[in-house]
Every structure is written in structure tokens, then in C-alpha cells.
Amino acid sequence: MPEKDILDPxxxxxxxxxxxxxxxxxxxxxxxxxxxxxxxxxxxxxxDGLAVFAEEQTAGRGxxxxxWLGKKGQSILCSILITKIKISPELLTLTIAAAAAEAIGxxxxxxxxxxxxxxxxxxxxxxxxxxxxxxxxxYILGIGINCHQNISDFPQQLQQIATSIxxxxxxxxxxxxxxxxxxICLEHRLESAEKHSEKIIEKWNKxxxxxHHRICLIYNGRKFTxxxxxxxxxxGLIVQLDSGAVRMFPAGQSSIAK
Length: 258
Known about the structure:
Elements: H1 9-13, E1 25-28, H2 34-39, E2 51-54, E3 75-82, H3 89-104, E4 109-111, E5 115-118, E6 121-132, E7 137-146, H4 165-169, H5 175-195, H6 197-207, E8 214-219, E9 222-232, E10 236-241, E11 246-249, E12 254-256
Parallel strand pairs: 1-2
Antiparallel strand pairs: 2-3, 3-7, 4-5, 5-6, 6-7, 8-9, 8-12, 9-10, 10-11
């Protein structure tokens, strides 16, 4: 791996020029989970924007208890602590997804609620965790992006559905440049979400793999089928069910059936 691709807090923060996101950056060679590290800083609201990166996670986790797999130095593994934002968790989920897809580029798309798709395969995932404190709510935005993996790095059962940026582009990803783009895009989209939530909805609609398509959703253990007709910043995915009824599905309790 090129020397420039080794994550370093000084290299990531160099010329970052963000107001909040990434104002403090910590990089671990190895840690159990960047979300767990970020959670240790939630008691101080002035830690808003803290970014925790790791070259390796020994107990990285995804949504619904899934594990995030990856060898050392292959991915962007990070968690961003947010303590001073005043938007709903649903809108925050949409915002993180839009920012991550925008940072990855290469025609990256969003699969409800937290997967980023490149050429039809999952290249990144998001885990949003909350911690309610006395006078504010802290949000931990966990983001994992596959960068340097080869097909053989994925377990056989994932080789048809997972990918990396290197695989899809044929170019070795500069993870420092990607980390910078991610922090910049996240700050830009968070500012937009607070002031103009409709712009986040517009961006999400543009990048969604589900909009106007027939889908099967799992919600609280039940299956629902219908056509995705939009997304609501407060209540989640809007689906016109096969019965004709229109129903909304919150991100925290719903997922697209495989």
C-alpha cells in the first residue's frame, strides 16, 4: 500500500477547512469499534464534530447486529460525533447516506436505509446510534467504506453482493483524499439539512435505487410489498402498498428484503 494511503490525523485535517466536522480527528491503528470510541466523548457537547478513524476494527458492527468485515488498511472505518444538530433521526439518516454517496462518487447510489451501492453491489454502510443526555441528544454516525478489497477478500457468500471502490474503478483509492471528501460532504449536507431539508430529499431521490421501483420491505418482522413513491424527512420511506394504501416505514425498524 502506498505510504500516502496510511491514515494520519494531520494529513486528513490538512486544508480540511470545515467549521465543525473533523475539527478534532483521532486515528487508531486498531480498535474494537470506532462507534464505541466516539461514544466515550458524548458527555461533552463541545466534542461536536469529533471524527474517529481506525485502520482496523476487531469488533466492528453494522445494522441489526451484523459484523463489518475487513482486513487492516483496506477500508475507511470512521465514526463522527454530532451533539449540536436539531434535525430528526430520519432526516439525519438520509443526510449521512447522501453525504457518503457524494464522497464516494463514481455513480454511487443509496439503498434504503443505510447501504451505499456501486454498480449494483454494496460498497459502504452506515450505522446511526443515539445517546440521550440531560440537555441534548448525541448522535454517532458510523460509516464504513470498502476501498482496497479484492473479490477474494470477501467471504464466498458475500462475493456476489459486496464490492470495493478499487474493484469497481480499477484505480487504487487514496483513502486520505476520500476521508477528507467524506468530512467535507458531511458538513455541507448537515448544514443543508438544518436549513433546507427539501434539498436533502431531492438529493436522496436522485441517488435512490428504490424510488419508483417495486420493493419488498421487512418491518418489525413482517413483509410488505409495494412501490416506493418517496421519502419523508420525519417518518421514513413512503410506499404505496399492493393493497393501494400508502404507508411510511421508519429507517430504524425497516429494511429492504434481500
